[in-house]
Amino acid sequence: EQAKTPGKESNIKKKNEKGFPLPRRYSGGGTVYQDLGNTNFTFLSSTTNFDSKKNSQVIIEALKTFGLTATISGRNDIQVDGLKISGAAYKLAPPRALHHGTLMINVDLTALGSLLNPNKLKLQSKGVASVTSRVQNLQTWSDKITHESLSLALIDAFCAHHGSDRVEPETLHSGDLRKEDSLTKYYEAMKDNKWRFGETPEFTHELEGRFESPMPWGTIDVCINSKKGQILEAKVYSDSLFPNLVEALAESLHEVSYDAQGIDLAMTRLRTAAEQRGEQLEQTHVEALAKWLKDSL
User: Fold this and answer.
1) Which of 66, 112, 128, 249 has the CA that lies 20 to 30 A from 120?
2) Partners of 116 in the β-ladder
3) Residue 59 CA, distance from chain mean position
4) How is 47-108 classified by DSSP, letter by letter?
5) Cβ neighbours, 10 Å, residue 166
6) N-term to C-term CA, the chain
7) How far does Cα 217 stand from its chain's mean position?
8) Could you give the CA distance from residue 233 to residue 224 in angstroms, rounded to a whole number?
9) Could you tell me the CA-to-CA distances from 60 to 39, 144, 222, 263, 278 in Å, in that order?
10) Closest C-alpha among 36, 240, 18 to residue 137
11) Distance from C-alpha of 56 to C-alpha of 161, rounded to nearest angstrom
12) Residue 218 CB partners (closer than 8 Å, separation 6+)
C-alpha cells in the first residue's frame, strides 16, 4: 500500500482505540487487515522470471490437498466458490521481483470489516456492498487447514512445480533479523511516522477514478495543486499493483501546464523515466491514464 493514503482505506480512529499498529509496505495493492488467522506468503525471483500467475498456481495446487478448488480472480485475488481467500501485491525493482500476499485461514472478519474502508469504486466493481461480503476463511471449507498444514502443503506444491527435491524451511526469528544491519535500517525507516502516515497538504483539485479495461489495475486518486494554469505539485494515491507507475506519475505531473498538452508531456516523461529505470510500462495503462486525466480537466 505504498501509494495509498492511510485514512483512505482504513479507520485510523478505530485502529488506535483497539491498539492495532498501522505498518505501511513498499509494494502496491490495497490496505490489508492482519491477525494470527492470516498466513502470508512471498515469492522472490528475478524480474525476467517473474510470473504472478505461476506463483498463484502453486497456491492453488496446495489448496487441492484439502479438497478445495481455487481460481485466480481479477488482477491479484484467489477465490473459492466465488469468495476471496487471498489477495496479493507486487514490487518490481529490476533485477528483482517480489510477489507477496495473504491466505485467510481463520481471520476475525468482524474486526476486518470494522477497520477497513475499501474504496467505494472498488466495491462497485466487485458488485458487493461491503468488504466482508466478498471474503471468507479457508476453515469454512476445511477445518484441517491450519497455518502449519497449509505451510507444508505450500512447500510441497512449490517443490513439485519446480521439479525439485523437498526443501526444509529455515525459521528466522526477530533476533536473527536484528543482526542484519540493512534489515535493521529498513525496519527503523518503516517505523517512522512520516513514512507511515505521509504528509498530506491541501490541494486545489482532487480526481478519483478506477481502471477496469482493458485489464483491472486499480483505483487512483490524483491530488493537484495548481496556479495560473500550471501544476505546482501532485500527489498520487492508488491501490495499483504497479507502485512504480504511481510514483513516476506524481513526478511527471510536476510543473506541467494543467491542460491536455501538459498531460501529454507528463505521459512522455512517464515513459522516459520508466525506460531509464529499465522498466516497461503497459502502453494500455498509460493511454487509459492520459485519457482519464484529460477527461477530468
Assistant:
1) 249
2) 10
3) 18
4) TTT--HHHHHHHHHHHHHTTT--EEEETTTEEEETTEEEEEEEEEEETTEEEEEEEEESS--
5) 8
6) 27
7) 10
8) 6
9) 15, 16, 36, 42, 32
10) 36
11) 11
12) 28, 75, 210, 211, 238, 239, 240, 241, 242
* Rounded Cα–Cα distance for residues 235 and 132 (Å): 30
**Under 8 Å CB-to-CB from 160, ≥6 apart: which residues?**
61
Residue 145: phi and psi, rounded to 5, are: -85, 115
**Residue 81 carries which side chain, given as an amino acid letter?**
D
What backbone torsions phi and psi does residue 105 show, to the nearest 5 degrees? -95, -55
C-alpha cell at 19: 491498539
pLDDT digits (tens, 9 = 90+) for 52-69: 999 999 999 999 999 999
C-alpha to C-alpha distance for 99 and 110, rounded to whole angstroms: 27
Helices (H), 219-259: 243-252
**How far apart (Å, rounded) are the C-alpha atoms in residues 134 and 1?**
20
Q: Model pTM?
A: 0.68
How far apart CA 252 and CA 66 sit, in angstroms, is: 48
To the nearest 10 degrees (0 to 180), the angle between helices 260-276 and 243-252 is: 130
Could you tell me the maximum CA-CA distance found in the chain, to the nearest angstrom?
65
Cα(233)–Cα(254) distance, rounded to whole angstroms?
6
| pLDDT tens digits along 147-164 | 999 999 999 999 999 999
Q: For 233-272, what is each residue's pLDDT tens digit?
A: 888 877 676 677 777 888 999 999 989 999 999 999 998 8
Q: Rounded distance, CA 65 to CA 182, Å? A: 38
Residue 201 β-bridge partners = none
The stretches of the chain forming alpha helices (DSSP H) are 6-9, 12-18, 52-64, 109-115, 120-126, 147-162, 174-178, 181-191, 193-197, 243-252, 260-276, 283-295
C-alpha cell at 284: 494500455
